[in-house]
Write a structure and sequence with these properties.
alpha/beta; 13 helices; single chain; about 350 residues; 12 strands
């Protein structure tokens, strides 16, 4: 079966950029020189390209629909992020089709097929890290893709909005090193995700700057689902030379990790200084309140919507954009100098 032509095929045959083709399809989105417009129209007729329903919605002034692909709504971070994105989209008159993948690449593949059938004009997603061909196919069909929180390195032409993961991990590690800690454990996300890799890199960079060796046994990259965070913390505490400080950089595993500390009777910060990547209200209500990396959900949502709408309306220049939002580090009473820590 012959493959249907894509917007990229039209752009290549007409010798113009994808954004020019998009502006021809959506007359109100920006100017196009008459000669270029004529050539694009000719190529569209020649190739038999059929603009997606979303493009027709845009040019007709109807309500736009975008897809939102979230990995796991049981993760409080992604639940709040999805809520903020939907709120921001509605403020622009944009409808949202929400899909959840539960961190499963197979479910993600099904979600992408569903969004193609729905003819969405754009997709905001936290990818699992797989389905590279399906994501590329989505882009080839003219769907504007914005990755939020995570990215896929093989898809370098996609727009990305995230926090400064490397910087956040580096800052929190440097803070603990400044308190005298040299055995700092890190519980982070899987290495299959860009966030997991970036946070480990920031942790390592802080050690390198302080001329401290990194004990690889103190780094635990664990899945987002299940009780892997608690299991990792249990094994860290059982080490012959356990850590004196802990950074939980896997937002989905913060509760599991802290629960295990409570179950083990670990005194914070007397036995263990703790920093978590989480901005839930309960972290401040603990005794003592937990030091946190607070991720700016509102800014992630605003930038993601601005990017996807900007692409759909042809208002942005060619080339991918990376927007990294600085996260706040809020030191609280869950961290103490090493001299005040009872080394077991």
């Amino acid at each position: 079966m012959k493959k249907a032509p894509t917007i990229r095929d039209v752009a290549a045959a007409a010798g113009v950029s994808v954004s020019v083709v998009s502006r021809v399809l959506n007359p109100d989105s920006g100017p196009v020189a008459p000669a270029k417009r004529q050539e694009v129209v000719r190529v569209i007729d020649e190739l038999g390209y059929r603009p997606r329903a979303a493009a027709r919605e845009l040019s007709a002034g109807h309500a736009l629909t975008i897809g939102l692909v979230v990995t796991d709504l049981s993760n409080p971070f992604f639940a709040r992020l999805a809520d903020r994105i939907v709120w921001e989209a509605r403020s622009h008159g944009v409808q949202v089709v929400l899909m959840t993948t539960q961190e499963d690449p197979h479910l993600e593949a099904e979600s992408l097929d569903t969004l193609l059938d729905r003819s969405v004009s754009g997709v905001i997603a936290t990818p699992t890290g797989g389905n590279i061909e399906k994501w590329a196919r989505l882009q080839d069909l003219g769907v504007n893709v914005v990755f939020v929180d995570r990215t896929i390195e093989e898809l370098g032409d996609a727009d990305v909005v995230s926090i400064e993961n490397f910087d956040s991990a580096q800052r929190s590690t440097e803070y603990l090193i400044g308190l005298g800690h040299t055995r700092i454990a890190l519980v982070t996300g899987p290495l299959s995700t860009s966030t997991g890799r970036a946070r480990i890199s920031g942790y390592r960079a802080a050690h390198e700057s302080a001329s401290l060796p990194v004990d690889p046994l103190l780094i635990r990259d664990v899945p987002f689902r299940g009780d892997a965070g608690g299991d990792a913390v249990g094994s860290l505490l059982a080490m012959p030379q356990p850590p004196t400080a802990l950074i939980v950089a896997n937002t989905a595993q913060v509760q599991s990790s802290v629960r295990r500390l409570v179950q083990k009777g670990v005194r914070i910060p007397e036995d263990l200084s703790v920093i978590v990547f989480d901005d839930n209200p309960w972290t401040e209500l603990m005794s003592p309140p937990l030091s946190v990396i607070r991720q700016p959900l509102d800014m992630l949502a605003v930038h993601a919507i601005e990017l996807v709408l900007g692409r759909m309306q042809g208002r942005l220049p060619e080339g991918p954009r990376l927007i990294e939002v600085k996260a706040d580090f809020l030191p609280r009473n869950s961290c103490a100098p090493l001299a005040q820590t009872a080394i077991r």
